[in-house]
Amino acid sequence: MSKVLVVAEHDGSQLNSSTAKTVNCASGIDGTEIDVAVLGNGVDAVAQEAAAISGVAKVLTVDRAENANPLSAVLGPQIAELAADYDYIFGPSTTFGKDLMPVVAALLDVGQVSDIMEVVGPREFKRPVYAGNAILTVEVDAGAKVVATVRTASYKAAPDGGSAAVEAASIAAALPSHSRYVELQSEAGERPDLQTAKTVISGGRGVGSKENFDIVYALADKLGAGVGASRAAVDAGYVSNDMQVGQTGKIIAPDLYIAFGISGAIQHLTGIKDVGTIVAINKDPEAPIFEIADIGLVGDLFEIIPELQEKL
Amino acid sequence: MKTILVALKRVVDYNVRIRVKPDGSGVVTDGVKMSINPFDEIALEEALRIKERGEAEEVVVVSIGPADVQQQLRTGLAMGADRAILIESDEEVSPLRAAKILLKQVEKEQAELVLLGKQAIDDDCNQTGQMLATLWGRPQATFASELELNGNTAKVTREVDAGLEVIEVDLPAVVTSDLRLNEPRFVKLPDIMKAKKKPLETIAIADFGVESASHISAKGWADPAGRAKGIMVEDVDGLIAALKEKELV
């Protein structure tokens, strides 16, 4: 039986849902046993969450002060050491996994498959290239370890219901001290995270100003939704850049996405390809976003948002 | 510092509509506009600004690819790089092999800072910078939106999913640029003329003695699945009804 090691993403207290999505992808490889590695400082709660993911056989923990913050130069050698017992080493294709997994691949002297969106066979995978405008099928040579990142937008989280054993792993690898974590500046407030929210409301240049975004926030709060924005809105200074949805921002896959005043530049559409239902509201009937929207409404967002606020 | 090395990749221009070849053997690149990978262009701009602040003596651009890559290297020289190196190869080079080759060049140049884009917009791999840093045994700072040099260290602000992460790394280091690090300058005609006289060295990829062994092969390219045609509604009531039908509100 082949074995998969999934690298858990967490913030020190909570497991990121990208982990269960990566487990789901790994479960698509026939006849594998899936273990999850949790590296951190004080990892018990996170390890328990990982152990509850259905389909996980074992959770390996590496609990040490150096792992308090996710520095890839520090985590990489530890995962490469754990990888000795595994055929597949998977991480999520979030900024965490994108930064870390190539370090692991380089240490193991193998290539990496980035952004798996479909498991075709045990060593064959589909991945988006050219910003999702083409799909490439790749094959990893027999005998080589498969190091990969998993496109989280392509997978639902594996459900809870597991009860895997949690085991502390010991690591011999020497860790570098040349990289130091300073701080995380986050504008995240009470609203759900863009990448985990079931509903996301998004505004574009059509919203017109930073102040005007207040009605977008108000509607989002009524629906319990996350708030995103187009690059045009970010560049115009209406919102902070961690809210940007698109090829160069965040690629998201909520059940419902409502775009207000977003014309639909290619790079934005790339970020919402996997959304369940796309709703587009724009005063320009020719806006390209209507070509991919599931539900379109031509009209003035300053009339439509208050009406939605009242009627929903 | 003395030398900053900037790695550039020649890619299909970001404004080109990508078409997959009918036989699935790749995407159409014949007669298509090619450019410096936009993230690499941002990396080069950052290197030039560091030099212009007096914090580096020399900016060297390096690329791996066919002879045509000279065009992009000349553009890099016109932007302000001091010299260029083309590592000539007619075959696709995987990120791991590119990292191994770049490492040899980095060591030869004794670069104290290596700048490149967070990913190339053709294969979207997002690997080369991290692999280079790892093989080099030096720090990496990916997705940089701000870079501040302080003697032997660099403070880098990184665009991560949770917000902006700040890390400090010892130099030498590898920094990969994100979109908001800067806005690259436009090249002016006199600069293009001047760039023609700047040194551009060509080295055959075989001279590096780094075999092609990424363990990953391409099986075929295809168009992405399209979305089903949607519906238009007349008003807010119609919208709410459609959402209720899908059990979304």
Features:
heterodimer; A: about 300 residues; alpha/beta; Rossmann fold; 7-stranded parallel sheet; 5-stranded parallel sheet; 9 helices; B: about 250 residues; 9-stranded mixed sheet; two-stranded antiparallel ribbon; 6 helices; globular
What is the assembly state of the chains in this entry? heterodimer
Q: What is the CATH architecture descriptor of the largest domain in chain A?
A: 3-Layer(aba) Sandwich
Give the averaged pLDDT of chain A, no decimals.
94
Largest Cβ-defined interface: A-B, 81 and 78 residues
Mean pLDDT of chain B, rounded to whole units? 95
SSE ordering of chain A: EHEHEHEHEEEEEEEEHEHEHEHEH
Low-confidence stretches of chain B: none
Strand count, sense and closure of the main sheet of chain B? 9 strands, mixed
| Poorly predicted runs of chain A | none
Report the sheet-strand fraction of chain B: 25-35%
Q: Supply the CATH class of chain B.
A: Alpha Beta
Q: Kindly, what is the distance between the CA atoms of the first and last residues of chain B, rounded to a whole number of angstroms?
A: 58 Å
What is the count of structural domains of chain A?
A: 2
Helix content of chain A: 25-40%
Strand order of the largest sheet of chain A: 5-9-4-1-2-3-10
At the fourth level of CATH, the homologous superfamily of the largest domain in chain A is HUPs
